Amino acid sequence: MNISPKSVRFDDDTLWVSLSDGRTIAAPLTWFPRLLQATPEQRAKVELSKSGLHWDALDEDISVAGLLAGQRDLSARGTHQPA
User: Residue 40 CB: number of other CB atoms within 10 A?
Assistant: First the structure.
């Protein structure tokens, strides 16, 4: 995939990502609990790479491919639930 993120912004409940192919995609912040709970200052410290978004202090990584596929944060699956 040659589509990369160009910029990121937030409103009260949405993550907006502008892509290198001219599209802007949105995802609800409820899909990403760490971003939902983060301060605006923490959200602003995003690192853009060829394949996605990274917030070091929040331990959050979101791929462009995942956003395009409509994937929410799957990292909590099975980690805090009883076996």
Answer: 7
∠ CA 36-42-48, nearest 5°, is: 95
Provide the domain count of the chain.
1
55: left (phi over 0), alpha (psi -120 to 50) or beta: beta
Q: In this structure, what CATH number is given to the domain that contains residue 41?
A: 3.30.2020.40
Query: What residues are paired with 61 via a beta bridge?
Result: 54
Would 37 be classed as within a structural domain? yes
Domain that holds residue 29: 5-68
DSSP H/E element including 37: helix 33-37
Is residue 45 domain-resident? yes
Summarised one tens digit per residue, pLDDT across range 22-68 is 999 999 999 999 999 999 999 999 999 999 999 999 999 999 999 99
